[in-house]
Structures are given as structure tokens and as C-alpha cells.
Amino acid sequence: MEPFTERVVEIIKGIPEGKVMTYGQIAKQAGSPRGARQVVRVLHTLSEKYKLPWHRVINSKGEISIVDYESRNLQKELLESEGVTFTSHNKINLNEFQSHGHNSLMEFGL
Fold first, then answer.
1. In a domain, 106, yes or no
2. Are 96 and 12 in contact (CB under 8 A)?
3. How many domains does the chain divide into?
4. What's the mean pLDDT in 61-72?
């Protein structure tokens, strides 16, 4: 596994229940500030294999990015079951629910 991918997997695994992180935030903490699309790729290809809490990853606006209606509703239900609330516009208050994850790459020995 590539180092960036490995870091992304570890960051996502570390998102606590009832908290969320954004694609861009994860990419930045994994060492690639412009790698948000790569985070999407990791989630898409490795969530099942590594049992990643994929539902805790949202976009920078505090919204669920999944287009598929059923998957979108599943993500919302999973987050709500962990205590995450949504505004009337289906947004998550990042000030309240955003995890700050790993604070530096030093945690990965970099």
C-alpha cells in the first residue's frame, strides 16, 4: 500500500464515533493538501476491506456528498445513530461535530 493511502486509512479509522472529518482535511493530514479526490478513491476501494467508518467522511460544506439516494440516506442514518445532527438544510455543524484527527504527520513517523 502506498504511504499516502496507508495514512488515509489510519486517519479514517481514527475518526471517533459521533464525529466527522472532511475529504480535504484527511488529505491534508495525510500529507497531500490537494488530495481530496484520492481520499474518495481510498474510501471507495478500501472501506469494506479495512472496515473503515466511511460514513464519518463528508465534504467541506458539512454535507453528504454521495449522490445515490439509498447510500446517502444510509450515511445520514449511521451518523444520526451516533448522535450527529443535521440542520434543516441537511448540513452538519462542523464546529460541533468535526474531529481534528491526527495533528501531524509525526504520528506516522514522518
1. no
2. no
3. 1
4. 96
